[in-house]
Amino acid sequence: MQRCIKRIFAIVLVALAGAITTTEAVEVILKSGRVVRGELIRETATSITLQLSSSRIEISKLSIKTIDGRSPFESRRPGAAVSSGVQNKPEVRISAGGFLMGDTRDKNAPVHKVHLDAYWIDTREVTNAQYREFVAASKRAAPRYWQDAKYNKPDQPVVGVSWEDADAYCAWKGKRLPTEAEWERAARGAHSRLYPWGDRFDATRTNTREARTRRPLPVGTFPEGASNEGLLDMSGNVWEWCWDWFDESYYRVSPLRNPTGPETGKKRVIRGGGWSAPQIHMAKRRGEKPDKTYPSLGFRCARSDAKNDPQMDALK
């Protein structure tokens, strides 16, 4: 049956490392009239992945007539609701465990399973008001753009900060920048979704170029764009500095437990996209020179769980 489907309907088998929890059984009717039933594992804007009896298959939505009687391009499942109590917490604990990191469509970011020890990460991006306290206490130079009314509102994310600025602020708070793996796990959730809310981009849930705001918005403006664990603005608003040095080929050699990036490099990792960038999924990688500052680049802090390996605490 597998060969028949692949040959006649151009359904491509895909190999995914590790196991992802299935969510629901679906009936897919292809444009040829063929009916395929299976467990829905993953859905993106262009394809779905189903678990059949003994294999997983990826089907292009261009080949699909309906999914459970609906258009394949119709939004089918709303993101899970997150209580305001969770969103009001200053930081969220991410439990220890494995997740699938990377993107099957990116040759430089192959999918691989990574195990992370438990850690904490800020619910929101660091704001101008929070950073102002640090500047006053440390006598550090004020960020670029602080005289620009477009970027200096107290509840907007601080921008115009270098990697060194972000690292110094986190250390002042007794924290550190999240590693690239920690950031991706927090943004994608335990089931490695493409966006904090699911596998389909939704311009109403995030501040990217599609929103045409032309500026960073107050942190937490999009509660409907939160992850299941309550993290806000992981997608859009501002790019966020991570701890790691950037190496385009690092995924091919990175350790499978608590990766912290290459030992040296010329650029640091930034993640998540910003208000001036078009929508990107949460597996997208990018590097930036550590001294770079611009109005769509900020950060949030993280910290190791108290019981974790001291190797991670050494990042502080």
Q: How would you summarize this macromolecular structure in one to three sentences?
A:
This protein is α+β, with helices and mostly antiparallel strands and 316 residues long. It has helices spanning 2-9, 84-87, 128-138, 163-172, 180-188, 310-313, and strands spanning 12-13, 24-30, 35-43, 47-51, 56-60, 64-67, 91-94, 97-101, 112-116, 119-122, 239-245, 268-271, 286-288, 297-298, 302-304.
Helix and strand arrangement:
Elements: H1 2-9, E1 12-13, E2 24-30, E3 35-43, E4 47-51, E5 56-60, E6 64-67, H2 84-87, E7 91-94, E8 97-101, E9 112-116, E10 119-122, H3 128-138, H4 163-172, H5 180-188, E11 239-245, E12 268-271, E13 286-288, E14 297-298, E15 302-304, H6 310-313
Parallel strand pairs: 11-14
Antiparallel strand pairs: 1-5, 2-3, 2-6, 3-4, 4-5, 7-10, 8-9, 10-15, 11-12, 12-13
